[in-house]
Design goal:
Largest sheet: 7 strands, parallel
CATH topology of the largest domain: Rossmann fold
Number of domains: 2
CATH superfamily of the largest domain: NAD(P)-binding Rossmann-like Domain
Number of helices: 11
CATH architecture of the largest domain: 3-Layer(aba) Sandwich
Number of strands: 12
Structural class: alpha/beta
Distance between the termini: 49 Å
């Protein structure tokens, strides 16, 4: 039975990916390595916890001895590396953990698996190390233009800079050592199980609690939204069909100004614009992201399938139906005071 190591599998995208991958690959075992930081939630995978093909290990990707011990106990034929600190606001408040996890942790993972691939797997050409990056490594666009995989990196926040560093490290391990690395750069994901400090679940849960919705500046920043099921399908296909050493954009092809997105959420919850609260803009706030999907369509045969209106309606319905999942998380956020997500 083939074994896949998933890092950060208790998080939003990672947990959605594990559920999908196990359902689609009955002859695969998944090991989920997760440190269980604030945004990780074991409840995300409660429904598969008893699956004999699933194993959870609490641990840090930067713990080299833990990784070596894991590999002595279990052969691993592939890695999908989701684990990361990922909230821009938190990186602005304090960037140390972002560098430690996203850069140094990724380096440790790459180095351990380079040696394992060379010494234990004898450079097995079927092995894959898939690194999950972000569109934010490219920086910002004006009102026109689009990012391709060849766009130079110009990250503008400590978060995106740390992800750019990890992205380049992953690339270097292919170029220098031949490690079969794949890189994906998805746009903004949304959907079930997203931690409620992020924009869409924050809006939905605030409105369900009778609270106003914070919008940065005038709400003119544009993001390209990708439903998490489409993102996981893309990662799965790149893992199977991608060319080692290559990076693939995963764009949602659904650009929205933040203010327009907020209005769509209000409409789905039968609320008026008096529920909006415009707050001071984020420092260094990127104006617009947009990704070209030409390469992944041409080489992998992937394209987004869930229309934004359908995905958003499904997301709102999921949060309506699962208050027992998000209310404890919101309660914990209220005790923090690091950003507008914790304001009541």
């Amino acid at each position: 039975m083939r074994t896949l190591l998933i890092t950060g599998g208790m998080g939003f995208i990672g947990s959605n990916f594990i559920r999908r991958y196990l359902a689609n690959h009955p002859a695969v075992q998944v090991i989920n390595l997760d440190k269980l930081t604030y945004s990780a939630n074991p409840e995300n995978l409660r429904d598969i916890a008893a699956d004999p093909r699933y194993r959870f290990i609490k641990g840090d990707i930067g713990d080299e001895e833990l990784l070596h011990r894991l590999l002595r106990e279990q052969a691993v034929e592939g890695v999908v590396h989701f684990a990361a600190e990922s909230h821009v606001d938190r990186s602005i408040a304090g960037s140390k953990e972002f560098i430690r996890t996203n850069v140094l942790g990724t380096h440790t993972l790459l180095e351990v698996f380079r040696r394992y691939w060379e010494e234990t797997l004898e450079q097995d050409p079927t092995f894959r190390f898939l690194h999950v990056s972000t569109d934010e490594v490219y920086g910002t666009l004006g009102l026109e233009g689009i990012f391709t995989e060849e766009t130079p990196f110009r990250p503008n926040s400590p978060y995106s800079a740390s992800k750019a560093g990890a992205d380049l490290l992953a690339r270097s391990y292919f170029e220098t050592y031949g490690l079969p690395v794949l890189i994906v750069r998805p746009s903004n994901n949304y959907g079930p199980y997203q931690f409620p400090e992020k924009f869409i679940p924050l809006m939905i849960t605030n409105l369900l609690e009778g609270k106003r919705v914070p919008v940065y500046g005038k709400g003119e920043n544009v993001r390209d939204w990708l439903f998490v099921e489409d993102a996981c399908r893309a990662v799965e296909l790149v893992l199977e069909k991608g060319r080692p050493g290559e990076a693939y954009n995963i764009g949602g092809e659904s650009e929205k100004r933040n203010i327009d997105l907020a209005r769509e959420v209000l409409a789905l919850l039968n609320k008026g614009e008096e529920w909006l609260e415009f707050v001071t803009d984020r420092p260094g706030h990127d104006l617009r992201y947009a990704l070209s999907n030409d390469k992944i369509k041409r080489e992998i045969g992937w394209k987004p399938e869930v229309p934004f209106s359908q995905g958003l309606a499904r997301t709102v319905a999921w949060y309506r139906e699962h208050p027992d999942w998000w209310k404890p998380l919101k309660k914990r956020l209220q005790k923090e005071s690091r950003g507008f997500w914790s304001k009541g």
